[in-house]
Amino acid sequence: MNTLFLVLGLLVYLLTAMDIVKTTFSSNGGGKITDAVSKSVWKSFFTLAGKNGRSKLLPYAGPAVLVTALMTWVVGLWAGLFLVLLSDAESIIKSSDQSVASPLEKLYYAGFTLSTLGVGDYVASSNVWRIATSIGAFSGLVFITASITYFVPVLSAVGLQSKLSLYISGMGKTPQQILTKGWDGRNFSSFFDTTSDLCQMLMQHTLNHHSYPVIHYFHNSQPKLAIARAFVLLDETQTILRRGLKEEIDLDELKLDMLQTALDAYLDMVKGSYLKNPSPNETAPVPDLENLEAKGISLKNSKELREIFTQQLHERRKLLTALLEMDGWTWQDVYPRAS
Protein backbone atom coordinates (compact mmCIF):
# COMPACT_ATOMS: atom_id res chain seq x y z
CA MET A 1 0.00 0.00 0.00
CA ASN A 2 1.43 3.34 -1.07
CA THR A 3 0.22 5.75 1.62
CA LEU A 4 1.32 8.82 -0.31
CA PHE A 5 -0.89 7.99 -3.31
CA LEU A 6 -3.79 7.12 -1.01
CA VAL A 7 -3.62 10.37 0.97
CA LEU A 8 -3.00 12.48 -2.14
CA GLY A 9 -5.86 10.79 -4.00
CA LEU A 10 -8.32 11.26 -1.16
CA LEU A 11 -7.24 14.89 -0.80
CA VAL A 12 -7.71 15.67 -4.51
CA TYR A 13 -11.06 13.85 -4.60
CA LEU A 14 -12.42 15.54 -1.48
CA LEU A 15 -11.23 19.02 -2.48
CA THR A 16 -12.87 18.62 -5.89
CA ALA A 17 -16.09 17.29 -4.34
CA MET A 18 -16.18 20.18 -1.85
CA ASP A 19 -15.65 22.67 -4.66
CA ILE A 20 -18.55 21.15 -6.63
CA VAL A 21 -20.83 21.25 -3.59
CA LYS A 22 -19.86 24.83 -2.73
CA THR A 23 -20.37 26.01 -6.31
CA THR A 24 -23.53 24.13 -7.28
CA PHE A 25 -25.43 23.90 -4.00
CA SER A 26 -24.38 26.99 -2.06
CA SER A 27 -26.12 30.36 -2.35
CA ASN A 28 -23.03 32.19 -1.19
CA GLY A 29 -20.49 32.02 -3.98
CA GLY A 30 -18.40 29.43 -5.79
CA GLY A 31 -15.60 27.20 -4.58
CA LYS A 32 -12.02 28.41 -4.52
CA ILE A 33 -10.96 26.11 -7.36
CA THR A 34 -13.83 27.29 -9.56
CA ASP A 35 -13.13 30.94 -8.72
CA ALA A 36 -9.45 30.56 -9.62
CA VAL A 37 -10.25 28.76 -12.88
CA SER A 38 -12.92 31.32 -13.81
CA LYS A 39 -10.63 34.29 -13.22
CA SER A 40 -7.81 32.67 -15.20
CA VAL A 41 -10.03 31.92 -18.20
CA TRP A 42 -11.55 35.42 -18.16
CA LYS A 43 -8.13 37.05 -17.85
CA SER A 44 -6.89 35.09 -20.87
CA PHE A 45 -9.86 36.09 -23.01
CA PHE A 46 -9.73 39.70 -21.80
CA THR A 47 -6.03 39.99 -22.67
CA LEU A 48 -6.49 38.37 -26.10
CA ALA A 49 -9.38 40.78 -26.76
CA GLY A 50 -7.12 43.75 -26.06
CA LYS A 51 -9.27 44.69 -23.02
CA ASN A 52 -11.85 46.02 -25.44
CA GLY A 53 -15.47 45.57 -24.39
CA ARG A 54 -16.60 45.62 -28.03
CA SER A 55 -14.39 42.68 -28.98
CA LYS A 56 -16.26 39.77 -30.60
CA LEU A 57 -14.07 37.36 -28.66
CA LEU A 58 -15.27 38.28 -25.15
CA PRO A 59 -18.81 36.82 -25.47
CA TYR A 60 -17.16 33.39 -25.65
CA ALA A 61 -15.46 33.86 -22.28
CA GLY A 62 -18.55 32.95 -20.21
CA PRO A 63 -19.25 29.63 -21.98
CA ALA A 64 -15.52 28.86 -21.85
CA VAL A 65 -15.53 29.43 -18.08
CA LEU A 66 -18.43 27.01 -17.64
CA VAL A 67 -16.88 24.29 -19.79
CA THR A 68 -13.46 24.71 -18.16
CA ALA A 69 -14.99 24.50 -14.67
CA LEU A 70 -16.84 21.30 -15.64
CA MET A 71 -13.69 19.76 -17.10
CA THR A 72 -11.72 20.75 -13.98
CA TRP A 73 -14.24 18.95 -11.79
CA VAL A 74 -14.21 15.83 -13.97
CA VAL A 75 -10.41 15.73 -14.08
CA GLY A 76 -10.20 16.32 -10.31
CA LEU A 77 -12.58 13.45 -9.46
CA TRP A 78 -10.94 11.19 -12.03
CA ALA A 79 -7.39 11.97 -10.83
CA GLY A 80 -8.38 11.53 -7.19
CA LEU A 81 -9.96 8.11 -7.71
CA PHE A 82 -7.06 7.03 -9.94
CA LEU A 83 -4.49 7.90 -7.25
CA VAL A 84 -6.51 6.01 -4.64
CA LEU A 85 -6.59 2.91 -6.87
CA LEU A 86 -2.89 3.34 -7.63
CA SER A 87 -2.08 3.15 -3.91
CA ASP A 88 -2.57 -0.65 -4.03
CA ALA A 89 -0.85 -2.54 -6.86
CA GLU A 90 -3.52 -5.27 -6.75
CA SER A 91 -6.61 -3.06 -6.29
CA ILE A 92 -7.95 -3.75 -9.80
CA ILE A 93 -7.70 -6.94 -11.85
CA LYS A 94 -8.74 -8.03 -15.32
CA SER A 95 -11.99 -9.97 -15.28
CA SER A 96 -10.79 -12.27 -18.08
CA ASP A 97 -7.65 -13.76 -16.50
CA GLN A 98 -7.51 -12.20 -12.99
CA SER A 99 -4.16 -10.54 -13.74
CA VAL A 100 -3.26 -7.25 -12.07
CA ALA A 101 -4.25 -4.13 -14.00
CA SER A 102 -1.55 -1.71 -15.12
CA PRO A 103 -1.59 2.00 -14.06
CA LEU A 104 -3.02 2.98 -17.46
CA GLU A 105 -5.75 0.36 -17.08
CA LYS A 106 -6.56 1.70 -13.61
CA LEU A 107 -6.90 5.17 -15.10
CA TYR A 108 -9.40 3.71 -17.57
CA TYR A 109 -11.21 1.88 -14.75
CA ALA A 110 -11.46 5.07 -12.66
CA GLY A 111 -12.95 6.91 -15.63
CA PHE A 112 -15.70 4.42 -16.43
CA THR A 113 -16.48 4.01 -12.72
CA LEU A 114 -17.13 7.74 -12.30
CA SER A 115 -19.19 7.85 -15.49
CA THR A 116 -21.13 4.74 -14.28
CA LEU A 117 -20.58 3.00 -17.63
CA GLY A 118 -19.89 -0.32 -15.91
CA VAL A 119 -18.08 -1.97 -18.83
CA GLY A 120 -16.95 -4.91 -16.71
CA ASP A 121 -13.63 -5.79 -18.35
CA TYR A 122 -11.87 -4.79 -15.12
CA VAL A 123 -13.11 -5.48 -11.57
CA ALA A 124 -12.12 -4.70 -7.99
CA SER A 125 -9.94 -7.36 -6.40
CA SER A 126 -11.42 -7.31 -2.88
CA ASN A 127 -14.44 -6.17 -0.87
CA VAL A 128 -12.63 -3.00 0.21
CA TRP A 129 -12.01 -1.98 -3.39
CA ARG A 130 -15.52 -3.01 -4.40
CA ILE A 131 -16.90 -0.62 -1.78
CA ALA A 132 -14.47 2.09 -2.94
CA THR A 133 -15.67 1.53 -6.51
CA SER A 134 -19.31 1.81 -5.44
CA ILE A 135 -18.61 5.05 -3.56
CA GLY A 136 -16.81 6.41 -6.63
CA ALA A 137 -19.69 5.43 -8.92
CA PHE A 138 -22.41 6.92 -6.72
CA SER A 139 -20.51 10.14 -6.03
CA GLY A 140 -19.53 10.45 -9.68
CA LEU A 141 -23.16 10.16 -10.71
CA VAL A 142 -24.27 12.78 -8.18
CA PHE A 143 -21.44 15.26 -8.71
CA ILE A 144 -21.26 15.11 -12.50
CA THR A 145 -25.06 15.34 -12.79
CA ALA A 146 -25.08 18.31 -10.39
CA SER A 147 -22.30 19.95 -12.40
CA ILE A 148 -24.21 19.69 -15.66
CA THR A 149 -27.58 20.78 -14.21
CA TYR A 150 -25.77 23.80 -12.71
CA PHE A 151 -25.66 25.22 -16.24
CA VAL A 152 -29.44 25.72 -16.40
CA PRO A 153 -29.87 28.31 -13.60
CA VAL A 154 -26.62 29.99 -14.65
CA LEU A 155 -27.92 30.59 -18.17
CA SER A 156 -31.22 31.81 -16.73
CA ALA A 157 -29.31 34.32 -14.57
CA VAL A 158 -27.36 35.45 -17.65
CA GLY A 159 -30.69 36.05 -19.38
CA LEU A 160 -31.82 38.30 -16.52
CA GLN A 161 -28.52 40.16 -16.73
CA SER A 162 -29.12 40.93 -20.41
CA LYS A 163 -32.73 41.89 -19.69
CA LEU A 164 -31.66 44.34 -16.97
CA SER A 165 -28.99 45.87 -19.22
CA LEU A 166 -31.43 46.32 -22.10
CA TYR A 167 -34.08 47.77 -19.76
CA ILE A 168 -31.71 50.45 -18.45
CA SER A 169 -30.26 51.20 -21.90
CA GLY A 170 -33.78 51.58 -23.26
CA MET A 171 -34.42 54.42 -20.82
CA GLY A 172 -31.71 56.53 -22.45
CA LYS A 173 -28.21 56.47 -23.87
CA THR A 174 -26.81 58.79 -21.19
CA PRO A 175 -27.83 59.78 -17.64
CA GLN A 176 -28.85 63.19 -18.98
CA GLN A 177 -31.09 61.61 -21.59
CA ILE A 178 -32.73 59.35 -19.02
CA LEU A 179 -33.53 62.36 -16.86
CA THR A 180 -34.81 64.59 -19.66
CA LYS A 181 -37.09 61.78 -20.82
CA GLY A 182 -38.38 61.34 -17.27
CA TRP A 183 -38.97 65.06 -16.67
CA ASP A 184 -42.55 66.24 -17.19
CA GLY A 185 -41.91 69.90 -16.37
CA ARG A 186 -42.63 69.50 -12.64
CA ASN A 187 -41.10 66.25 -11.44
CA PHE A 188 -39.62 62.90 -12.51
CA SER A 189 -42.73 60.76 -12.05
CA SER A 190 -42.09 58.91 -15.35
CA PHE A 191 -38.66 57.86 -14.11
CA PHE A 192 -39.91 56.76 -10.71
CA ASP A 193 -42.62 54.65 -12.37
CA THR A 194 -39.81 52.36 -13.54
CA THR A 195 -37.99 52.23 -10.20
CA SER A 196 -39.82 49.24 -8.71
CA ASP A 197 -39.04 47.04 -11.71
CA LEU A 198 -35.44 48.26 -11.78
CA CYS A 199 -34.92 47.54 -8.09
CA GLN A 200 -36.46 44.09 -8.38
CA MET A 201 -34.28 43.09 -11.33
CA LEU A 202 -31.14 44.63 -9.86
CA MET A 203 -31.58 42.93 -6.49
CA GLN A 204 -32.28 39.60 -8.21
CA HIS A 205 -29.18 40.07 -10.32
CA THR A 206 -27.13 40.76 -7.19
CA LEU A 207 -28.48 37.61 -5.53
CA ASN A 208 -27.73 35.64 -8.68
CA HIS A 209 -24.14 36.86 -8.46
CA HIS A 210 -23.87 35.41 -4.97
CA SER A 211 -25.34 32.06 -6.06
CA TYR A 212 -23.68 31.85 -9.49
CA PRO A 213 -20.49 33.97 -9.53
CA VAL A 214 -19.60 32.69 -13.02
CA ILE A 215 -22.25 34.98 -14.55
CA HIS A 216 -19.80 37.83 -13.91
CA TYR A 217 -17.75 36.48 -16.82
CA PHE A 218 -20.61 36.43 -19.32
CA HIS A 219 -19.93 39.46 -21.48
CA ASN A 220 -21.91 41.10 -24.25
CA SER A 221 -20.01 43.16 -26.81
CA GLN A 222 -23.04 45.34 -27.56
CA PRO A 223 -22.99 48.43 -25.29
CA LYS A 224 -26.76 48.36 -24.78
CA LEU A 225 -26.53 44.80 -23.41
CA ALA A 226 -23.39 45.33 -21.29
CA ILE A 227 -24.26 45.13 -17.60
CA ALA A 228 -21.25 47.16 -16.36
CA ARG A 229 -22.10 50.11 -18.61
CA ALA A 230 -25.82 49.86 -17.80
CA PHE A 231 -25.16 49.80 -14.06
CA VAL A 232 -22.91 52.89 -14.19
CA LEU A 233 -25.51 54.61 -16.37
CA LEU A 234 -28.18 54.00 -13.73
CA ASP A 235 -25.91 54.89 -10.80
CA GLU A 236 -24.94 58.21 -12.38
CA THR A 237 -28.61 58.98 -13.05
CA GLN A 238 -29.45 58.30 -9.43
CA THR A 239 -26.52 60.45 -8.29
CA ILE A 240 -27.64 63.44 -10.36
CA LEU A 241 -31.17 63.08 -9.01
CA ARG A 242 -30.11 62.80 -5.39
CA ARG A 243 -27.13 65.14 -5.29
CA GLY A 244 -27.30 67.47 -8.29
CA LEU A 245 -30.79 68.99 -8.16
CA LYS A 246 -32.01 71.90 -6.10
CA GLU A 247 -34.22 71.02 -3.15
CA GLU A 248 -37.23 72.74 -4.69
CA ILE A 249 -37.75 69.78 -7.05
CA ASP A 250 -40.10 67.21 -5.56
CA LEU A 251 -38.62 63.67 -5.59
CA ASP A 252 -40.06 60.33 -4.54
CA GLU A 253 -37.71 59.74 -1.60
CA LEU A 254 -38.99 56.23 -0.92
CA LYS A 255 -38.29 54.98 -4.42
CA LEU A 256 -35.01 56.88 -4.52
CA ASP A 257 -33.92 55.14 -1.31
CA MET A 258 -34.97 51.77 -2.73
CA LEU A 259 -32.88 52.41 -5.82
CA GLN A 260 -29.92 53.56 -3.72
CA THR A 261 -30.10 50.39 -1.62
CA ALA A 262 -30.21 48.14 -4.70
CA LEU A 263 -27.27 49.97 -6.30
CA ASP A 264 -25.23 49.87 -3.08
CA ALA A 265 -25.87 46.14 -2.65
CA TYR A 266 -24.56 45.42 -6.14
CA LEU A 267 -21.50 47.62 -5.65
CA ASP A 268 -20.73 45.99 -2.30
CA MET A 269 -20.92 42.57 -3.94
CA VAL A 270 -18.61 43.63 -6.78
CA LYS A 271 -16.16 45.26 -4.40
CA GLY A 272 -16.08 42.25 -2.09
CA SER A 273 -15.62 39.67 -4.84
CA TYR A 274 -13.92 41.33 -7.80
CA LEU A 275 -12.61 44.81 -6.93
CA LYS A 276 -11.09 44.64 -3.47
CA ASN A 277 -8.37 47.18 -4.31
CA PRO A 278 -9.57 49.19 -7.31
CA SER A 279 -6.92 51.21 -9.13
CA PRO A 280 -8.47 52.43 -12.39
CA ASN A 281 -6.44 54.06 -15.14
CA GLU A 282 -9.10 56.61 -16.05
CA THR A 283 -10.51 59.49 -14.01
CA ALA A 284 -14.29 59.83 -13.87
CA PRO A 285 -15.41 63.00 -15.68
CA VAL A 286 -17.71 65.68 -14.33
CA PRO A 287 -20.89 65.32 -16.41
CA ASP A 288 -22.09 68.17 -18.59
CA LEU A 289 -25.60 68.97 -17.37
CA GLU A 290 -26.37 72.03 -19.49
CA ASN A 291 -29.07 70.22 -21.45
CA LEU A 292 -30.90 69.50 -18.18
CA GLU A 293 -31.02 73.21 -17.38
CA ALA A 294 -32.25 73.87 -20.90
CA LYS A 295 -35.21 71.60 -20.12
CA GLY A 296 -36.06 73.69 -17.03
CA ILE A 297 -34.54 71.34 -14.45
CA SER A 298 -33.10 73.35 -11.55
CA LEU A 299 -29.54 72.30 -10.74
CA LYS A 300 -27.02 73.30 -8.13
CA ASN A 301 -24.32 75.70 -9.34
CA SER A 302 -21.35 74.37 -11.29
CA LYS A 303 -18.93 74.76 -8.38
CA GLU A 304 -21.10 72.65 -6.08
CA LEU A 305 -21.58 70.02 -8.78
CA ARG A 306 -17.84 69.76 -9.43
CA GLU A 307 -17.16 69.34 -5.72
CA ILE A 308 -19.84 66.62 -5.48
CA PHE A 309 -18.55 64.62 -8.45
CA THR A 310 -14.81 65.05 -7.87
CA GLN A 311 -14.55 65.04 -4.07
CA GLN A 312 -17.65 63.82 -2.24
CA LEU A 313 -18.20 60.93 -4.63
CA HIS A 314 -14.54 60.29 -5.44
CA GLU A 315 -14.34 56.78 -3.96
CA ARG A 316 -17.65 55.64 -5.38
CA ARG A 317 -16.85 56.89 -8.87
CA LYS A 318 -13.38 55.37 -8.61
CA LEU A 319 -15.09 52.03 -8.02
CA LEU A 320 -17.43 52.67 -10.96
CA THR A 321 -14.44 53.43 -13.18
CA ALA A 322 -12.79 50.17 -12.16
CA LEU A 323 -16.04 48.33 -12.85
CA LEU A 324 -16.15 49.76 -16.37
CA GLU A 325 -12.50 49.00 -17.08
CA MET A 326 -12.80 45.47 -15.73
CA ASP A 327 -15.38 44.76 -18.44
CA GLY A 328 -13.58 46.62 -21.21
CA TRP A 329 -15.58 49.87 -21.20
CA THR A 330 -14.76 53.52 -20.45
CA TRP A 331 -16.61 56.63 -19.32
CA GLN A 332 -16.84 57.54 -23.01
CA ASP A 333 -19.45 54.78 -23.27
CA VAL A 334 -21.50 56.43 -20.49
CA TYR A 335 -20.96 60.08 -21.43
CA PRO A 336 -20.15 59.92 -25.19
CA ARG A 337 -19.13 63.57 -25.40
CA ALA A 338 -17.12 63.62 -22.15
CA SER A 339 -13.50 64.44 -22.69
TrEMBL record:
Keywords: Ion channel, Ion transport, Membrane, Transmembrane, Transmembrane helix, Transport. Residues 86-155 form the Potassium channel domain. It comes from Pontibacter cellulosilyticus. The keyword Transmembrane applies. GO terms for biological process: monoatomic ion transmembrane transport. It comes from the Bacteria. The keyword Transport applies. The chain crosses the membrane at residues 64-86, 131-155. Pfam families: Ion_trans_2. InterPro entries: K_chnl_dom. This is Two pore domain potassium channel family protein.
